[in-house]
Amino acid sequence: MSTRWKIFAALFSLCVLHVGARAETDNPDGYRFSGPVSHGNLAIYFVHGSSRGGLVPLTLQEAMAKKVVEVREIGRVNEVQIENVGDEEVFIQAGDIMKGGQQDRVLSSSLMLPPRSGAVSVASYCVESGRWSARSGEDSHIFSSSNAILPSRRAKLEMAGPAPARPDGSSGSRQRGIWNSVAQIQGKLSSNLGAPVAAPQSQTSLQLSLENGRLEREQAQYVAAIEPQGEHDNDIVGYVFAVNGKVNGADVYPSNGLFRKMWPKLLRASITEAISERDLGNAPALPAAAIKEFISRAAGAQTVETHAGERTRILVNDSAKVISLESRPAAAPASAWLHRSYIAK
Question: Which of 94, 81, 92, 85 is nearest to 66 (CA)?
């Protein structure tokens, strides 16, 4: 080999090494992305990665259905009390909607409840303005179910950062922003479905709107086209979704088992957002490379650590275009993270 070609080969190998190192930095967890799987104006991309071993916890939805978790009203808008009375861990996700109590709530942080946890206070926001009493046939002291995830990017952004509390225990402008988001999504759904989704029992209840029969029938078409695709591969640990050709958000979990448990609930929330935004028209789906960029974009931002009670740390990376939140048990190492969420700005 000539001296010129030896020099070229050496330079080429350095370039290859440099590109490989950069890719690893952009994607430190080694995630692989596939998709899109599309229906209408909704595109779903799957996040593939290794799964953590061990037992898969119950979701809050499962635990409440089994009656091994009790969620109690304590008379404060921005706080509920949750107790795991069972023998399995229970995963709670930021965005879980609680039905019942004196008003429906959404939980604002992801955490793991250990078996026999005792009573734990969890931060919440109201997603049903005005009501502060029992609905017909319900117990105002407890919450009955958690079958839906908050289907609003705007509301998720409202919850993503801290807000100073007022003396009455409410969070002021942040709570008003979430009420406005609820009203907005109700209005858009009503317009795009051609019928009001607000329930006569409580016009402001987001949960009751999500139980609207017309909405559920419309969702079924998306579910039939997309849901089975999330159950094919055993290395899917998360998903990213885009509406009208723009990335909306993502959720990633430490195992395929936990993702599969959350997948139906997550998908229906994404479908609801897509239906509410359908008036903006369809746009071409993004390539998978754009999804990788979305996930990695927040990594370059400064990390700010907050706490959700004594049990959970939240690591927040807030960049110009995306905010990411990673939940970890307070005393656990970084490898023991519970949930990663990404929200487009």
Answer: 85
Q: What is the dihedral of CA 110, 113, 114, 116, to 10 degrees?
A: 180
Give the Cα-Cα-Cα angle 322, 326, 327 (nearest 5 degrees): 150
Q: Report the alpha-carbon distance of residue 322 to residue 299 in Å, rounded.
A: 10
Place of tokens 């579910």: 223
How many Å apart are CA 307 and CA 150, to the nearest integer? Answer: 21
pLDDT digits (tens, 9 = 90+) for 305-342: 988 877 899 999 999 999 999 999 998 898 999 999 99
Q: Give the residue ranges of DSSP H helices in the chain.
A: 3-26, 60-65, 153-159, 173-193, 206-210, 213-226, 256-276, 288-297
Q: Domain locations in the chain?
A: 1-25, 26-50+219-344, 58-212
Q: Is residue 142 within 8 Å of residue 70, measured between CB atoms?
A: yes
Q: Are 314 and 306 in contact (CB under 8 A)?
A: yes
pTM attached to this predicted model = 0.88
Q: Which percentage of the chain shows pLDDT scores above 90? A: 77
Going from the C-alpha of 129 to that of each of 52, 77, 105, 193, 269, the distances in angstroms are 40, 10, 10, 23, 20
Helix, strand, coil percent content, the chain, rounded in steps of 5: 35, 30, 35
Cβ of 160: how many Cβ atoms within 10 Å? 19
With beta carbons less than 8 A apart as the criterion, state whether 313 and 306 touch: yes
